Structure formats: structure tokens, C-alpha cells
């Protein structure tokens, strides 16, 4: 691993070009990454329900006039 602080212009260009290349499937081995094997939790399914409940609460506040502090 190169730990030098400064690089020449050619080294910097070479580094940027190597960073832009996508990972190779054989070298990255995504099948061995444990976070890739975890199923998605069910919180994303609750989001529409939460939005509807918040909408009802806000509509209730507006209908009852609790948000109007000016008398």
C-alpha cells in the first residue's frame, strides 16, 4: 500500500483511472459479504401506513383549528 502524501501528476492520473473502473465480480466476491445475504426488514412496508396516519393527524389539527394560535 502506498502511504506517501504527495503523488506526481502521472501517479494521480493513474490512481483516478483505476478508481473509476468497476469492481470485478471474481475479485470482489459479493456472495461472501454477510450484509448482502440479509433480507430486508419490514420497515419499508410500514412507511405508507405511517404517512397515512400522520396525514390524518395533520388534517385533524387543521380541521379543529389547533394550529391557529391567533384568535
Automatic annotation (TrEMBL):
Segments passing through the bilayer: 46-66
Top-rank taxon: Bacteria
Biased composition annotated in UniProt, kind: Basic and acidic residues: 1-23
Alphabetic keyword roster: Membrane, Transmembrane, Transmembrane helix
Stretch list, region Disordered: 1-41
Protein name: Uncharacterized protein
Amino acid at each position: 500500500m502506498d502511504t506517501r502524501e504527495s503523488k506526481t501528476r502521472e501517479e494521480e492520473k493513474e490512481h483516478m483511472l483505476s478508481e473509476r473502473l468497476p469492481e470485478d465480480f471474481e475479485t470482489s466476491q459479493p456472495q461472501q459479504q454477510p450484509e448482502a445475504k440479509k433480507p430486508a426488514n419490514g420497515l419499508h412496508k410500514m412507511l405508507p401506513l405511517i404517512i397515512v396516519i400522520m396525514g390524518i393527524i395533520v388534517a385533524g389539527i387543521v380541521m379543529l383549528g389547533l394550529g391557529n394560535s391567533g384568535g
